[in-house]
Every structure is written in C-alpha cells, then in structure tokens.
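Hi P.,

Sorry for the delay on this. The queue was packed all week, but I finally got your sequence through. Input first:
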Amino acid sequence: MSNKGKKKQVVEKLFDICVKKNDFVFHNDLVKDVCRKVGLGNPFDVTKLDDKAKLPDVLLKNNYAIIHIGGGKHKFIKGISKVFHDFEPIQKKIDWEYKKSILNQYNSSESNILSVANNQRILHHFLFGKDTELDNIDILKRPKTYFPHRTKASFEYYFGRGTKTELKNIQIEVDLTIEFQGTIGVFEGKNGKPDSFSVYQIYHPFLYYYNANRNTELAGKIKNIYCVYVVREKGKENDTLKLWAYTFETPLDITTIKFIKSTSYKLINIG
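Then the structure:
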C-alpha cells in the first residue's frame, strides 16, 4: 500500500476510535500509535490535509474534516465546507510574455512557484494592476516583498456561530508577503490541479496580520489584507499560473471566506 493509502487508513482508524469514544478530540500520541500499527513512518503528516480529495471516504460520507486545536491536539468537526473551499472558475486569462530565467523551472517546489510569479511581476499585476511599468518608478512606490518565514502565534477564532477555537503558540508558515501603501497580500503556492484547499492555509497568515494591525506597532497601518492562492499547472510547451484572491468578511470567523477575483497567466517565453 502506498503512503497515501496508509495515510487515509490512519485517518479512518482515528475517526473510528473517536466515534466509539464519542469524543472527537485526539492527540498526536494517538496518531503516532495508530501510525505504528498501520506501518506509516511519518505521523506528523497525517493531519495535514490541504485538499478535501485527500479525505478518506468515511469522512466524506459523514461530512467530517480535521482541524488543529493546539497543544498537540486535533479534532474531527462536522462540516467539510467549514474547513475546505472549492476554487472558483477563472474569470480572466492572460498570455504573459517573459524572458525565462535559467532557474525558473530548475525545481518544482512551492516556493519556486511564488519566486517565479514574483520575479515576473505577476503577483504585483494581479493585486495592484501594474506590470512592467513598476520597473520605471521609484523603489519607495513599488510593492515590497517579504520572503517565507515561520513564526509562533496564538489565535482565537470561530468555525461559524458557536464553535470557538483557541490555538496556543502554534507554528504558522507565511509563504510570501507583499505590501503596497498599506495593502498586504499573503500568498500560498501549490503544484498540480487541485479542486479545493484547506482554508486555514491562508486564514492563519491573514489572522496573523489582522491581529498585528490591532495589537502591535503596526496598529492602524494595515488597510487591507488579501490572501492569494497560486497554482502552477505544467503544460507541454507553457506553464500556467492560476491565482485566486480572498479575504474574510468577519475576520474572526474562518467560515466567512470571501472570493475577490481570479486570473490565469500563461507563461509565454520570448527569450
């Protein structure tokens, strides 16, 4: 059995244990124990499900997903749509001419996806409606780029009315951030053709900056926060970058994700 199959088997067994106990909270210690019995070597990857297609059938059938609640604990919650979001159709398609760098396709990592999109000014164009003219204006007027970082943060937010989550000192990853005149864009990158994504991937970075705008020296300086999911699709001749922008209507409720716009950029090499 493949690791993907074993991973689904571990989640199925965890769900079965929780159903029998009538307690849907479980700890990493239980995850490790079940992984040993199934023969899966990496227990830390089991609960990281970034696409609902990765959910085992028993969760899809019963409409359950997994959320992280901190302290090494996780929880099965009712309502897959609270945790995952389906990508909207692409609204606009652009042929994007560029001169290919020797490193553009050297690796297919998610960080490389964002590096290419940033270097080619696609991220700036998508959020701010600018392209090559950015190269001709003063550096102080250009969007600033802040590269990937990890940090620890504590969050309190809701999964819809009545379901509150408190996360203490959890690690979050911000793949890439750009800022321009008080508007912040945070980016998540992925390869392939996913149909959905786990909302927390963009929500936790959103909440990180939202809280900073209330409680730190940045208070009142951030005007807008947009979360952008970037997907690279490999083609025989050209790669395509697809971008979706979101925000959250109620900042402290992860289920209030709001779609802003979407665009695809077909990379046309003119070098």
